[in-house]
Specification:
By secondary structure, the protein is mostly helical. Helices cover about 70% and strands about 0% of the residues. About 25% of the residues are buried. Pfam families: BPD_transp_1 (PF00528).
Length: about 290
């Protein structure tokens, strides 16, 4: 018999969801509305002189080659972060699910990176690959690979991807591991008795049953790549060299706070928000069809 939670007081459910509603209104709807309002204005850094320009900020934005460069860079960056992060974390989760000895220590070490702030992760990886004192840069130089992300744009982008993936991999790992442990072992044992090898058991049984978790993490990682990697970029490369790592979320900050173009920066944030919403809708509309619940 299904049991449902009932409340004796009619106001109690509203009281319980009230803090979340307030947080959503204050930290999402209000900033979003403010960004939409400022996107149709032209104002100075202190808001003293304000002029209504309607869609001029958006028109200027779509005529800016630098904006298209950041947009293309963001697409590539988001794909790399999501694909590499999900693949690596799934591999680690499968390995952790099979470990018998030292499993607790192995899982603990994999969870730790999530406690590191994105800005700290950027500083950490920047120090390791520093062309002057970085230990990994020194090791690469010893085998004939010159790694200098300060002047090489492709290497800088690669390093930002590595730092972003490392910072998010623990989050993905926890969900994948929980998903793997929720799969009935009897299904896998039955497939093994029928003669299915490890690879066949994974692709035909484990992977389909893990698809809801994978779909959720895909959406989360796309949003993370668009918004959550700002701290990594800011502390590691600051969008350089030569704007080789200036993704859209950093360009919003760079143009708004450094360039003092508040209207153009707000227009960029509105477009970025719409793009992420559209991507999320597309994922739920098309990719979710392949998910087996």
């Amino acid at each position: 018999m299904e049991k449902r939670v009932t409340f004796n007081e009619r106001w109690l459910p509203y009281l319980l969801v009230g803090p979340q509603i307030v947080i959503t209104l204050v930290f999402f709807f209000w900033p979003s509305g403010q960004a939409i309002y400022q996107s149709v204005l032209l104002e100075d850094a202190f808001g003293g002189n304000t002029k209504f320009v309607f869609l001029d900020n958006f028109i200027h934005l779509f005529n800016d080659p630098g904006y298209y460069h950041s947009a293309r860079l963001t697409v590539v960056f988001s794909f790399l972060v999501a694909a590499v992060g999900l693949a690596a974390s799934l591999l680690l989760a499968v390995m952790a699910d099979r470990i018998i000895r030292g499993a607790t220590a192995y899982k603990t070490f994999l969870v730790w990176p999530y406690a590191v702030a994105p800005a700290v992760a950027g500083v950490l990886w920047g120090f390791l690959f520093n062309p002057s004192v970085g230990i990994i840069a020194w090791m690469l130089q010893g085998i004939g690979i010159e790694f200098n992300y300060v002047i090489n744009g492709n290497q800088a982008l690669l390093l930002v991807v590595i730092a972003a993936v490392w910072n998010q991999i623990s989050y993905n790992f926890l969900f994948f591991l929980a998903g793997l442990q929720s799969i009935p072992k009897s299904l896998i044992e039955a497939a093994a008795i029928d003669g299915a090898g490890p690879g066949r058991r994974f692709w035909d049984i484990v992977f389909p049953l893990l698809s809801p978790t994978g779909f959720f993490l895909l959406v989360v990682n796309i949003i993370y790549a668009f918004f959550g990697t700002f701290g990594v970029v800011d502390s590691l490369t600051k969008g350089g060299p030569a704007k080789a790592t200036e993704i859209l979320v950093f360009k919003v900050y760079n143009d708004g706070f450094r360039g003092q173009d508040l209207g153009g920066s707000s227009a960029q944030s509105v477009i970025l928000m719409l793009v992420v919403v559209l991507l999320t809708v597309v994922q739920f509309r098309f990719i979710e069809r392949r998910v087996h619940y």
